[in-house]
Amino acid sequence: MIDALEPRKQRLKNAVDDLVGAVGGAEKAPHYTRLKRPQSFGEYASIDHPDRWAPLDVIADLERNTRHLPGAPHVTRVMCAEAGGAFVKLPDGGTPGSCFHRTLAELTIEYGEVAAHLIAALGDGKLCADDVKQRRLIPEVDDALAKLAQLRMQLEAVEQGG
Q1: In terms of domains, do 106 and 139 share one?
Q2: Residue ranges making up the domain that contains 17
Q3: What is the mean pLDDT of residues 82-94?
């Protein structure tokens, strides 16, 4: 039944499958949501059930419980990509501080790590999937984006009179 779903919907089903797996599978997923039927979670993740989709509040409940895991937030990342964007995790904590020097220094370090890993990966003149995975390029870029997001929050606070 793979042909029943277009690729973008298959990506969503795969993301739901990853999310359900991250909470321990369909048997454990009901512990985190209002839905109590484990079979529903299997259907939401299955391409064999093209008309069964997880409700947004259920996705939100599951993602709230997987924040600390690699790949999280599983479904939100795919949805951001569908909208032409990328998910960027904002820094934890309360209001953004005004220590611009520290944020800029941390951002510079993160950028330097991305550049160093990427330069090393390009040592043979090409970049392949193994290079991206082995050198953790995507998590490194995510760390740099988080620092940029922190800087943005600080600048917004200044702009708004904070």
Answers
A1: yes
A2: 2-82
A3: 78
Q: Using alpha carbons, list the distances in angstroms from residue 67 to 25, 58, 71, 146, 147.
A: 16, 15, 9, 15, 18
Please, what is the end-to-end C-alpha distance for the chain in angstroms?
55
The answer to whether position 75 is within a domain reads: yes
Q: Are residues 135 and 70 in the same domain?
A: no
**Verdict on whether the full-model pTM lies above 0.85:** no
- DSSP per position, 20-80: HHHTTSTTTGGGGSS---HHHHHHHH-TT-TT----HHHHHHHHHTSTTSTT-SHHHHHHH
3-state secondary structure of 92: coil
Residue 70 falls inside a structural domain: yes
| 92 occurs within a structural domain | no
pLDDT for res 29: 97
Residue 29 tokens, joined: 């997923």
Residues 21 and 78 in one domain: yes
In the chain, the number of structural domains is 2
Query: What pLDDT, on the 0 to 100 scale, is given for residue 2?
Result: 46
State residue 8 phi and psi, 5-degree precision: -65, -35
In angstroms, rounded to a whole number, what is the distance separating the alpha carbons of residues 125 and 145? Answer: 26
